[in-house]
Design a protein that fits this description.
Elements (H helix, E strand, L loop, with lengths): L1 H14 L4 H8 L6 H16 L2 H13 L10 H6 L5 H13 L14 H13 L8 H11 L4 H9 L7 H22 L1
C-alpha cells in the first residue's frame, strides 16, 4: 500500500494545484530517515510555508504557462519531442488489454504522468479488477514510466522558480529509483 499511496500522492500533486486542505495534509507529513525522508520533510515544510494561491501560480507557471509550459509531463513529449505519438498509442493499447477505461474527468492524454501513476496505483490495488502480480506491474512500469519519468522529475527538481514543486521532483525521482531497484531485486 505504501507504493500505491506514493503513486497517488504524486499524481494528486501533479494533477492540479493542491487546495488548502491538501496543503495542510502534506504539511503534516512525518518524514523518516535518509534521502526520501529529507525530501518528504522539505515538501512538508514547503506546504506549511505556502498558500494555495502561491502554489496555484507555481503550478500554472510550470505546467500550463502562457504560450508554452515550462515542463510537459507526457511520455510522448519526453520520448519523441512531440505530443500524441507512439508512446500514447502504446499505453492506450495496453489499457485495452488490461481492461482500463480512459477517464471522462480528464482532458489530458493517457501518457500524462498523472494518468500513468494512477494506472500503476490501480494495478497495485486492484482498482481495475484484481490486483496484478508484480511481474505485470513491472512490465507496465518498464514500458510506460521508466524510460522517461525520472528525467521529468529531475527537470521538475531543477525548475529555478519552483519552491513547492522542487521537493515533489526530488520525491518522484527517488521513488522511481526505488521502484526500479525493487523490481530488479524481485526479478
Amino acid at each position: 500500500m505504501l507504493r500505491a499511496n506514493t503513486y497517488m500522492l504524486l499524481a494528486s500533486l501533479l494533477r492540479a494545484p493542491p487546495d488548502a486542505e491538501t496543503l495542510a495534509g502534506v504539511g503534516a507529513l512525518e518524514a523518516g530517515e535518509g534521502e526520501m525522508g529529507g525530501a518528504l520533510a522539505r515538501l512538508a515544510s514547503a506546504a506549511r510555508d505556502s498558500t494555495p494561491e502561491a502554489v496555484d501560480d507555481e503550478f500554472h507557471d510550470i505546467f500550463v504557462g502562457v504560450g508554452e509550459a515550462e515542463l510537459n509531463p507526457y511520455a510522448s513529449y519526453y520520448l519523441t519531442g512531440l505530443f500524441y505519438e507512439k508512446p500514447l498509442a502504446k499505453v492506450r493499447l495496453e489499457m485495452a488489454e488490461l481492461g482500463i477505461a480512459g477517464s471522462d474527468d480528464s482532458s489530458e492524454p493517457e501518457d500524462h504522468i498523472v494518468a500513468l501513476f494512477e494506472m500503476m496505483c490501480g494495478l497495485i490495488t486492484g482498482a481495475f479488477g484484481k490486483p496484478v502480480d508484480l511481474a505485470r506491474q513491472q512490465a507496465f512500469f518498464d514500458t510506460h514510466i521508466a524510460p522517461w519519468a525520472e528525467r521529468f522529475f529531475e527537470d521538475l527538481e531543477a525548475v529555478e522558480s519552483a519552491s513547492f514543486y522542487k521537493p515533489v521532483g526530488t520525491i518522484g525521482k527517488l521513488f522511481l529509483r526505488i521502484e526500479s531497484q525493487a523490481f530488479e531485486m524481485a526479478a
